[in-house]
């Protein structure tokens, strides 16, 4: 006999053990078999189901001396109970992934002037050292990446710094010099001591608005005193197009060292010039939300990336 609840009273919260016992009986329709399936004694299982019926104020089973049947209410609630237990199982799996670093999903945002040149190193590292990590890559400009980080759409960013953004922690990876890329017959071609001041009068080709590399190049020009009216042609959405414009004789451009081999190796109409020390440069870092729950994991990932990037033409940052 199941005790009925008084009007206005609320059922007591069932325990997971009670739900698990009820679902086992609903599946096997036999107390002994259900008890064996979930590793409970038969008396304990019977008591758990009876306690669940009492707490809910609903008869779930119809018991006879020969068989067990689900009541109409039991049929409906068995499905609900399975859903609850499945959800709890998923919760435990997520918690296990959180306890075990470098498992589960990592949503990495990367700027376009980094992605083609560093992703091979990043992906190789993840494949060999973190095979259980589900890396999802999103290539976007800096503003979009920062918005994604702030709103939880992205977990970690790979981009040029400093950002100067509150609540964002930067983990420096390396510094790399800029190289001057010019048409084949340019008078500065092949030099290893190009002065920064040469940028004052050159016909400079830059990326479109929104690319941080454009802003960095303009900062360098301002530092050397480039006059405001000096030609600056903004004609390309990506570095590959920019380099082709240079090869066509429309001007010169600045490329980061990591992009140089990829972007110039296929074109014999180009030449390069290296700046005298100290050469203009940029810093690349990982960026995360300040106080991120996965901060220790991200810091370890940054150190692994530093080691993996020592083979690149960069100056690897020392960990803080």
From TrEMBL:
HTH lysR-type domain boundaries: 14-71
Domain of life from the UniProt record: Bacteria
Pfam families tied to this protein: HTH_1, LysR_substrate
Gene Ontology CC, one term: protein-DNA complex
Keyword annotations of the record: Activator, DNA-binding, Transcription, Transcription regulation
GO MF: DNA binding; DNA-binding transcription factor activity
PANTHER family: HYDROGEN PEROXIDE-INDUCIBLE GENES ACTIVATOR (PTHR30346:SF26), TRANSCRIPTIONAL DUAL REGULATOR HCAR-RELATED (PTHR30346)
UniProt similarity note: Belongs to the LysR transcriptional regulatory family.
Name of this protein: Probable hydrogen peroxide-inducible genes activator
Taxonomic path: Bacteria, Bacillati, Actinomycetota, Actinomycetes, Kitasatosporales
């Amino acid at each position: 006999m199941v005790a009925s609840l008084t009007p206005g009273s609320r059922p007591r919260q069932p325990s997971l053990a009670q739900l698990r016992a009820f679902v086992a009986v609903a599946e096997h329709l036999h107390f002994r078999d259900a008890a064996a399936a979930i590793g409970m004694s038969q008396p304990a299982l019977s008591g758990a189901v009876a306690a669940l019926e009492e707490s809910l104020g609903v008869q779930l089973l119809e018991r006879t001396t020969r068989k067990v049947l689900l009541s109409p209410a039991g049929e409906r609630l068995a499905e609900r109970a399975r859903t609850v237990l499945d959800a709890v199982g998923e919760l435990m799996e997520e918690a296990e992934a959180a306890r075990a670093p470098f498992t589960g999903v990592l949503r990495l945002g990367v700027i376009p002037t980094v992605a083609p040149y560093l992703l091979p190193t990043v992906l190789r590292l993840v494949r060999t050292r973190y095979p259980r990590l589900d890396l999802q890559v999103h290539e976007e400009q800096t503003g979009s990446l920062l918005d994604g980080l702030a709103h939880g759409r992205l977990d970690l960013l790979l981009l040029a710094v400093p950002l100067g953004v509150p609540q964002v922690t930067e983990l420096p990876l390396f510094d790399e010099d800029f190289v001057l890329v010019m048409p084949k017959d340019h008078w500065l071609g092949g030099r290893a001591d190009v002065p920064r001041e040469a940028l004052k009068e050159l016909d400079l080709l830059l990326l479109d608005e929104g690319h941080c590399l454009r802003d960095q190049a303009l900062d360098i020009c301002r530092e050397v005193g480039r006059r405001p009216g000096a030609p600056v042609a903004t004609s390309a959405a990506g570095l590959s197009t920019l380099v082709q414009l240079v090869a066509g004789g429309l001007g010169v451009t600045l490329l980061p060292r990591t992009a140089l081999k990829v972007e110039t190796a296929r074109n014999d109409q180009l030449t390069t010039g290296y700046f005298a020390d100290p050469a203009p440069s940029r810093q690349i870092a990982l960026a995360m939300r300040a106080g991120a729950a996965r901060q220790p994991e991200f810091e370890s990932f940054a150190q692994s990336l530093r080691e993996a990037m020592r083979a690149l033409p960069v100056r690897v940052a020392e960990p803080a």
